[in-house]
Amino acid sequence: MMKFYIHTLGCKVNLYESGVIRDILLNEKYEETDEENADVIIINTCSVTNTADHKSKKAIQGAKRKNKDAILVVMGCFSQVNEDIQKDLDVDVVLGNKDKTKIISYINEAIQKKRIVHIEDVSKIPFETMKLNNFNKTRAFVKIEDGCDNYCSYCIIPYTRGNVRSKKKQDVINEVIDLVSAGHKEVVLTGIHTGHYIDGNYKFYDLLKDLVKVKGLERLRISSIEMNEITDEIIELFKNNTILVDHLHIPLQSGSDEILKRMNRKYNKRDFIEKIEKIRKVRPLISITTDVIVGFPGETDELFKETIDTIKKIKFSKIHVFPFSRRKGTPADLMKDQVDEKVKKQRVHELLDLSKKLEIEYMTKFLGKELTYIKEIEKDGFFIGHTGNYLQVKTKEPEKVLIEKIEYPYIIGGKV
Fold this sequence. Notes:
The chain is an alpha/beta fold. It folds into four domains: 3-118, Rossmann fold (3-Layer(aba) Sandwich); 124-245, Transcription Regulator spoIIAA, CATH 3.30.750.210; 249-360, 2-Layer Sandwich (Transcription Regulator spoIIAA); 370-414, no CATH class. The protein has helices at residues 12-27, 50-66, 77-81, 83-87, 103-111, 157-161, 169-181, 204-211, 232-240, 257-263, 269-282, 301-314, 341-364, and strands at residues 3-8, 31-32, 40-45, 71-76, 93-95, 116-118, 139-146, 165-166, 186-191, 198-199, 202-203, 219-222, 247-249, 287-294, 318-323, 370-379, 382-387, 392-395, 400-407, 410-414. Strands 2-1-3-4-5-6 form a six-stranded parallel beta sheet, sandwiched between helices.
């Protein structure tokens, strides 16, 4: 019996795709094991930043060192654009971001001592239909879209993932129905550019409208969505449907118009603030989380302060903070006025402190209130899970809780 090990780097889309590959291997009677004992090691790489490249390369080198006899498969964004890996004779199978579902045939070729390099032009490939069956019994991810057409100046992803392309609407609906039938209570829609989903004239709003009707589905969550893709129709759907959870992750990236323009983002801070206000009119207690990049080329102390002021005005419930990382092949890598690494580090800490303050401020709104959560793990006699608005609950109660206190990062729930 062949044994396998999968190492996944990067985003939720990679996590989903690795899950699909795991399903395929298990269904072919492969056995999952650790890296040292595997006959096949699969590394699903990331290339979003130079740091991600370094981690991907380190994972490949580590796999070679720990288990030199295993068939080594390297796939994903790093291998898509990295010629060194494509030429590396110690890697048995090199795949980009196409045909990951054909993993069995590639392994069989490698067993015959054939080296495979399969890299296609991602600007011309169709959506690769995948379906994941073996997620945990609470939250399941469904990949509905791949690729990105935004071309932000700091991002390599349009070159590693290609153009926007989407899963057929009926395939998405059927996958959600099957997941709910298998016991999943929550479905998370994910993609590289999720809100850009389109199947002919059928758009993201149409998909949401159909999915909230799936019998037995308790929660529908959007992994991330761009501000300008949240249409008035989608806001109206949030107003009238409780299956859509009280949480949206909307990347801000910067609260300075000057930096947003340099980033090639498609909005300004006033547009962003106004959109958040419209959302909160229909969902006053919604959790809105975000991504922010600090230390982008040209970000002065004054422009960083502008970002701080914008964030305080919006009052996000959590901020994912990233120091700008130069990425070869992007316009931002060649920009002048690169920010000193020490300054970036200081700004990261300042924003993380603000994020914690805003997070606790948001949590405080729910003290004394009843909330429903979905159990995810049991630890030290407590259940831990998330509410619809993505608060992390720690409690001994099975489903519904009365929020008694905050022990960051948890809210502590007692008996209703």
